[in-house]
Specification:
four-stranded mixed sheet; alpha+beta; Phosphoribosyl-aminoimidazole Synthetase, Chain A, domain 2; single chain; 2 domains; seven-stranded mixed sheet; 29% helix; 296 residues; globular
């Protein structure tokens, strides 16, 4: 951590405000949360790395902080739960200034505050490498059963909450998590499986089908294509549909439903036959998963 680490910690403490669920937020060795006895606790964690998920030479620190938090909030949306609290860690490049660290934190807060999600703790460090941040998030079911990836059944419709593709033109940094939509879908009683589109439609649909033991067929003409995908296609010559199918980081919700849901665009059908297929111009072809794949 740069000079002023204790000043930074003291400043973070000054930003804290207790609530009914968080009587003691960050500022002690551990935060204290009050959890209703009839609530399920949902926990997730996500890491973002400079040069992979953002570029610190291009993107402002507040924008980076917002993206880090919004990725976790999007996971809450995918299960229909309400975010309550988050823990954030940051490994800063050496000689990073205090103002930069504050801007990262304020970005986290800007994303979390609209959902009453408090940042209740974390850790800071400095090292010779690039900026790395991790957020762990705590969500609650609040009387609604969480939606998983494993409930899709043959005959279910496949839906998305918005247009896809071309997020690299800027939406990968500025997207908004679909908390309200995810909650509405979970409460509808007709949604059988759900996931947020972080790695691309073709790959994330494969996650749903794999967990559910089913296959799927997508209708090419029904897939909503974002204007960013068309703009990107004018540059690289690729088919806009390919961008919608494979780009990733749209962070819309992909879900299946056994009856008409309250929102979403119908783009295909779950089937018993394994594999992901695309119907286009009267032909049905196998659809490869070409979205983002995390290297190991």
């Amino acid at each position: 951590m740069p000079a002023g680490e204790f000043d930074f910690i003291a400043w973070i403490r000054s930003q804290q405000c207790p609530s009914s669920l968080v009587p003691l937020p960050a500022g002690d060795d551990l935060a204290i949360l009050r959890w209703p006895a009839d609530d399920l606790l949902l926990i997730g964690v996500d890491q973002v790395l400079d040069g992979i998920h953002f570029d610190s030479a291009v993107h402002a620190p507040r924008l980076i902080g917002r993206k880090v938090m919004n990725r976790n909030l999007s996971d809450c949306a995918a299960m229909g739960c309400l975010p309550v609290a988050a823990v954030a860690t940051v490994a800063l490049s050496r000689n990073t200034g205090l103002d930069y660290a504050r801007e990262l934190y304020l970005g986290l807060r800007e994303a979390a505050d609209p959902y009453d999600c408090q940042i209740v703790g974390g850790d800071t460090a400095s090292w010779p490498g690039k900026l790395a941040m991790t957020v762990s998030i705590l969500g609650r079911s609040a009387g609604t059963a969480p939606v998983t990836r494993a409930g899709a059944r043959p005959g279910d419709g496949i839906y998305v909450t918005g247009p896809l593709g071309g997020s690299i033109l800027g939406r990968h940094m500025t997207f908004l998590p679909r908390i309200r939509e995810g909650r509405q879908l979970a409460q509808s009683g007709v949604v059988s499986a759900m996931i947020d589109l972080s790695d691309g439609l073709s790959r994330d649909l494969g996650q749903v089908c794999g967990n559910s033991g089913v296959g799927a067929i997508l209708e090419a003409q029904a897939i909503p294509i974002h204007e960013d995908a068309r703009a990107l296609s004018s540059r690289d010559g690729a088919d806009p549909l390919d961008h919608a199918l494979h780009d990733g980081e749209d962070h819309e919700l992909l879900f299946t439903a056994h009856a008409t849901p309250p929102l979403g665009t119908h783009i295909g059908t779950i089937q018993a036959e394994k594999g992901i297929f695309l119907r286009r111009n009267g032909r049905i072809l196998a659809l490869p998963a070409r979205g983002w794949e995390h290297a190991m």
